[in-house]
Amino acid sequence: MASNPVHGLPFLPSTSFNDSTKTAFHRSQTLGYRNGYAIARRPTVGIGGERLPVNQLSQADLDELANKAPALTYGEPKQAPPAQFIPAHVAFDKKVLKFDAYFQEDVPMSTEEHYRIRQVHIYYYLEDDSMSVMEPIVENSGIPQGKLIKRQRLPKNDVGNHYHWKDLNRGINITIYGKTFHIVDCDHFTQEFLESQGIELNPPEKMALDPYTELRKQPLRKYVTPSDFDQLKQFLTFDKQVLRFYAIWDDTDSMFGECRNYIIHYYLMDDTVEIREVHERNNGRDPFPLLMNRQRMPKILVENAETFPQCVLEISDQEVLEWYTAKDFIVGKTVTIRGRTFFIYDCDPFTRQYYKEKFGIADLPSIDVSKKEPPPVKQELPPYNGYGLIEDSAQNCFVLIPKAPKSDVIKMLLNDNKVLRYLAALESPIPEDKDRRFVFSYFLATDMISIFEPPVRNSGIIGGKYLGRTKVVKPNSSVDYPVYYSPSDFFIGAVIEVFGHRFIILDTDEYVLKYMESNAAQYSPEALLSIQKRFQRQESPASDSENKRTEEGPGVQELEALIDTIQKQFKGHPYKDNICEAFQDQDKEASGFVDKEMFFKICDSLSIPVDDSLIKELIRMCTHGEDRINYFNFVRAFSH
Questions:
Q1: pLDDT above 90 (res 131)
Q2: Long-range contacts of 283-290 (CB under 8 A, 24+ apart)
Q3: d(CA 336, CA 319)
Q4: Which Pfam families does its entry note (predicted)?
């Protein structure tokens, strides 16, 4: 082991040396566990594993102490006097442990009881470890009781062991001569003795009771004090007075269930109830007049009368705790009779007057329980799968044999053979797609669009039909209510998205201009202006500075007209100062040009709508070369 490099150095006051090679700085444990108990122990090493100089003996001192006899220092040890011998029959004389237990005995030859519970006392005599079992005498039990097992040592198993007080506890079973006793409790002396000997007692239990003995304790007959109610007076007072209630029984929750009407009659003279059926013509039911004959109706039965054969025997006052009375029939509440729940929704005028005078309930409601027509089910179409037109797919959900959707015949006759054609370019980041041109054909008779790509020699792209005749849904349009492209969506600079591909309209033919002028209400002023200016430039004399876009920039008239249009559309948006400062900060050379990437970053930071068709056209006209944009003309479009 390497030696300590600072060992032996002088340790002067206010001078100390730290061991730079030490890596462990933990302290030794001063607590430990032995046999499950926490004990304190003296540490032998200090912080970092260094041995403590305190209380440390050398090997010579340890050998001297090991060989030193304590008798030379303290003298010969004195023997303690022997403990006084006390025999067990004297120490535990008249000390008995008492346990309460019971055992179950089968009764095979009796119809009144199948088993009986016999309670016993188990005594354990500490002086000789003997036991006895005593059964308290029960009066008129007819069973020989008293001492069941006389005092003796009871065998525990077949090996020859006997029961000891350590084997007894509450809540356990012990078997003595083939009988199993369940110990439930013990007396106070037994509890203190067992706890003093380190035995943990189980919680006490309740003593089991013999069911036949408890049955015999009940009185043989129950006498009911006769009522002093005068039934004859009730008969004479309420003769021919009947309460009539209109009720329904709603059984629609069960299979083949229905809602049926009933009339409940309550006879005040003897408190009897009658339920009559209400039949309608051609209801398909047998014309039985009564659902339940006139009788007294029990409301609450006694506990032992739940299995009373009511269909054979009449119920008497001994089986019923409470009968139905007139106060149990209230309009607007339910009443359960013979397992059926009736809802009372109305009553006759006599019943209303009776409840007002007898119970003080006035203005009983009349509830409308007529069947209401269910709301019409809204027919929902399944989600669109992307094949064909939505109108054609929806016909499969309307009829079993689908038919072609109805078309506007007048529109087809007026616009037959009328086609609007546009020249478009594909907006794609792929360099090969920049020079591709497409011809859009919009058929006014059916609102369908077809796309044709003129073939170009040595381009590597096969031209021809790009898209057949079909209706094109606008982006962000719902599937349930699709919105298709219309002629008003096509103008120079517009972006048309067709099944995920974006096209920019570059040019149109002269027929489109005539159609737009004749249907000017369908188009926006900007769309008409873009088409008109395109044809004006074509008809004006040829001039490089006005009719063509050169390397320096676009035509002056076209640029000024577009700037004027954008100023009118974005009036009220103060962008000018912020845009000028942003572009001038990036234009270090003051050339008036910035690259495209930085240009779009500035527009994005200032929230300028670069996706607008007019602004796209302005950006295209301000672009010089492939990646440079003249921002002076762009800023002028947002000035006021």
A1: yes
A2: none
A3: 19
A4: DM10_dom
Rounded to whole angstroms, the Cα distance separating 185 from 119 reads: 12
Highest mean pLDDT among 206-210, 369-373, 571-575, 609-613: 206-210
Is residue 312 helix, strand or coil? Answer: coil
Whole-number pLDDT of residue 549: 41
β-strands 628-630, 593-595: how paired? antiparallel
Tell me the CA distances in angstroms from 334 to 28, 246, 364, 601, one per residue in order: 80, 12, 15, 74
C-alpha 364/C-alpha 355 separation (Å) is 9
Q: DSSP of 15-82, one letter per residue?
A: -----TT----PPPP-EEEETTEEEE---SB-GGGPBPSTT---HHHHHHHHH--THHHH-SPPPPPP
Total-model pTM: 0.34
User: What average pLDDT does the segment 124-149 reach?
Assistant: 92
The token duo for 480 is 């349930």
What pLDDT shows up at residue 361?
A: 87
Give 491-519 as a 3 state SS string.
Answer: CCCCEEEECCEEEEEEEECHHHHHHHHHC
d(CA 56, CA 625): 93
328 and 271 Cβ atoms separated by less than 8 Å: no
Domains of the chain as residue ranges with CATH: 88-217 (2.30.29.170), 231-358 (2.30.29.170), 390-523 (2.30.29.170), 540-636 (1.10.238)
The 8-class DSSP code of residue 90 comes to H
Distance CA 162, CA 466 (A): 105
Sequential DSSP letters for 566-594: HHHHTTT---HHHHHHHHHHH-TT--SEE
What are the structure tokens assigned to 493, written together?
């600079």
Contact 211, 198 (CB under 8 A): no
**103/116 Cα distance (integer angstroms):** 9
Range 170-186 average pLDDT: 94
Both tokens assigned to 355: 């409840």
Closest CA to 174 of 127, 213, 124, 113: 124
d(CA 615, CA 620): 9
Dihedral angle computed from the Cα positions of residues 310, 327, 367 and 240, in that order, rounded to the nearest 10 degrees: 80
74 phi, psi to nearest 5 deg: -105, -5
What single DSSP character describes residue 432? G
**Is it the case that residue 263 has pLDDT exceeding 90?**
yes
pLDDT of 56: 65
Evaluate whether 309 touches 292 at the Cβ level (below 8 Å).
no
Q: Are 610 and 617 in contact (CB under 8 A)?
A: no
Measured distance CA(389)–CA(42) in Å, rounded: 91
Whose CA is closest to 510, among 540, 496, 541, 531?
A: 531
| Structure confidence at residue 553 (pLDDT) | 41
* Start-end of H helices in 81-187: 88-91
Structure token digits, residue 150: 């006389």
Q: Angle formed by the axes of helices 556-569 and 525-539, to 10°? A: 170
d(CA 488, CA 530): 13
